[in-house]
Amino acid sequence: MLKRLRPLSLLAAVFSALSLASSGALAGWETNMTRGVTEISHEIYNLHMMMLYIVTVIGVLVFGVMFWAMFKFRKSKGAKPATWHENTRLEVLWTVIPLFILIGMAIPATMTLAKIYDTPDADVTVKIDGYQWRWQYTYLADSPDDEVSFFSALSTPRFEIRGEAEKSEWYLLDVDNPLVIPANTPVKFLITANDVIHSWWVPDFGIKKDAVPGIINESHTTVLETGTYRGMCAELCGRDHAYMPIVVEVVEPDEFEQWLAEQRGDTAAAGSETLNTAGQ
Question: What is the percent of the chain where pLDDT is above 70?
Fold first, then answer.
């Protein structure tokens, strides 16, 4: 009797945990991947769902046949074990069918990977440098005088991190200077690092690219919707790895050009002030 109750107790504990999660203890907990706001992220999501459906069907069929055989041909019903040892036709089938399934899965996966790694011409190029523990964004231009560069660091107050105040909505996911890019515009990212390996990851863009010192990795995106999108460093890079968020503001192209012009003016003013100070 006790042996029968133990599985029931375990099942009750599982249902209790699930009900606790659904009641808000794990608010915002999602089980599926982000669909995103770019064509690449949509393709990644569709590929993921297609693979999920395929493996689900395979799992249902395999376990269905297995459990059917276990119950139908169990010893208590007087079933006798088969006496044959091999079946060439069956072995060919369970070799050829999985082969065709794998080929059918590999083709769309390869096509999606090719699109991820193929960096087309872009209207905006941003160089991203990872530091311990912040990001530097540089908008490249034909002339070095037209380039805009700034650092983006965590803006969550330290008293929130220490637990001395209630945590804000974007706890550990807000920065002082977000990256700004235009919507519906091809943008290229040149990603590297200054000290150790980091990883620039924005789930909504379908981008996760390592930032390696001495190496420039390329990525690209065309964001279809304006808004604020967040990510974080996805490579363990040291003590403050958890304090290295990414915030990207996607705005209309006209608004982006206005913002970029303002940043160039601020950069020029800062450069003039530095020269005047040095002259004095």
Answer: 85
